[in-house]
Structures are given as C-alpha cells and as structure tokens.
C-alpha cells in the first residue's frame, strides 16, 4: 500500500442480511480483487453461493461497480460518514448458459413482430 493512501472500512451485505468481509481496504484496490475476497469468505452454509467473481455484483449508492475500476475510481465515500463503515450490497447472479437463452434461427423466423409464433 502506498504511503498516504486512503483506507476505507467496508462490509458487504448478502441476500439474507448477513454481513461478510468486514475490513479496511486500500482505495487503490480494484473491484475484482474485492470480489475475489468475498468469494473466498462466502459462508459455506448459504443456499446461494457464487462460483466466481463473475457471479457477483457489488452495489454502492445504487450503482453497480465495474470490475476494472478501483474503489477511488468508483467514487466510494471516504471518511464523510459519522459511523465510518460503508455497507455495500452483494447480489449473486450466476451466469446463464448461452444455449438456454439463445433462440435458434428457425425459432426466430417463426416469430413475427409482436413476438407471436407463426404456425
């Protein structure tokens, strides 16, 4: 960590209200590094578990944070809060297999402009 770098105290709230990975983080840390820590510390007794960082969305102040940005780039508030701990929300959204979401060319040709099947 660079000298004079700002530190941010964060905790991450998951879908059932449990807080995980409560710690102090450097403002230069990337969102993807944070997600790696969350995946590693995810409670094993939960029914919904992320398999990778791509299954997670971090939300702060109503915005989904981008993996390649740092906490400073994401404009996370530094020390302006009276409590000092910032809570981010974590959403688990597993990737959907492409073959389940893509329609075949034949199926697409059967649909008209209103999305109705033409028989």
UniProtKB/TrEMBL annotation:
Where in the cell?
Answer: Cell membrane
| Lipid bilayer topology | Lipid-anchor
One Pfam family per UniProt: Rad60-SLD_2
Entry GO CC? plasma membrane
Gene3D superfamilies to which the protein is assigned, alphabetical: Phosphatidylinositol 3-kinase Catalytic Subunit, Chain A, domain 1
Ubiquitin-like domain location, by residue?
8-76
What InterPro entries does the record point to? Answer: MUB, Ubiquitin-like_dom, Ubiquitin-like_domsf, UBL3-like, UBL3-like_ubiquitin_dom
Its keywords, alphabetically, are: Cell membrane, Lipoprotein, Membrane, Methylation, Palmitate, Prenylation
Primary site of residence:
membrane
Cited CDD domains: Ubl_MUBs_plant
User: Membrane spanning segments where?
Assistant: none
Job description of the protein = May serve as docking site to facilitate the association of other proteins to the plasma membrane.
Q: What is this protein called?
A: Membrane-anchored ubiquitin-fold protein
